[in-house]
Write a structure and sequence with these properties.
The protein is an alpha+beta fold. The chain has a single domain (12-277), classed as 2,3-Dihydroxybiphenyl 1,2-Dioxygenase, domain 1. The protein has helices spanning 22-33, 83-92, 150-161, 179-186, 190-197, 231-240, and strands spanning 12-19, 36-39, 49-54, 57-64, 73-79, 96-97, 101-103, 107-113, 119-125, 140-147, 164-168, 171-175, 206-212, 221-227, 244-252, 255-261, 267-273. The longest helix has 12 residues, at 22-33. It starts with 11 loop residues before the first strand and ends in a 9-residue tail after the last strand.
Length: 282
Amino acid sequence: MSERNGYIPGVPCWIDISAPDVQAAAQFYSDLFGWEIENVMPEGADGEYLVGRIRGGDVAGIGSVVDGASRATWNSYVWVDNADDAAAKARSAGGSATDTFDVMNAGRMAVVTDPEGAAISVWEAKEHLGSKIVNEHGSLNFNVLATRDPERAKAFYGALFGWNALPLPSGTMWTLPGYGDHLEESNPGLRKGMTDMGAPDGFIDVVAAMNPMPANEATARWDVTFAVDDIEATAKTAKELGGKVLAGPFDAPWCRMALIEDPQGATFTASQFVIENRDLVG
């Protein structure tokens, strides 16, 4: 199921990159993933915001950095009914949140930070309904929290989004009760297909993932993973375009992946689905 028309509350719905050089970032990702690029800012607006698309469907945004940051970073957004309420929940759960603000007619949002310092945005949609294309080559496949304190993260994200943690041999997943029912309603037969493929019990409710970090690593963060058809070709192309392959390609449960850094310093994972790897342990 790769095409979407909106999300339910508690589901990651959009990603964008904040880049020092917006046009260079657009060139890198369009060359790497085949995105069509459109500038969606009104004429004369401060800053730049471009949207990458596949078959005309929104995939991700590319915007200007704030406060003169020298490195690019990927940002994740989660759909909520009310951004003001979500920001208040984040604060009461031990995190922090910016003031909520409107993004023209697109939606209303706030950036929330968990108790460990990982930032993620909450998105109350108006005209912008998030990513239209997911889980296919060049589009978002997973949002992954890197954390040193999984138990604290479970308490925070459970209070904020209603997420539960699903431990699997391949790692820990975030699940949202009822998400599988929503997916099955829009894509009848999905549940049976996942069962036939050997997906673990409860996997249909998965909305994100969580990876533990060593205590000496950098601040906790949210990372993004893109689906690709050929991980070897993607890694090779990324290097040819001026990026770096920091790790891989290597085999992992259900996939083969590589950690890539773009020319402006933003890191992301590229992942090729490999069903033969389903029994590998992370």
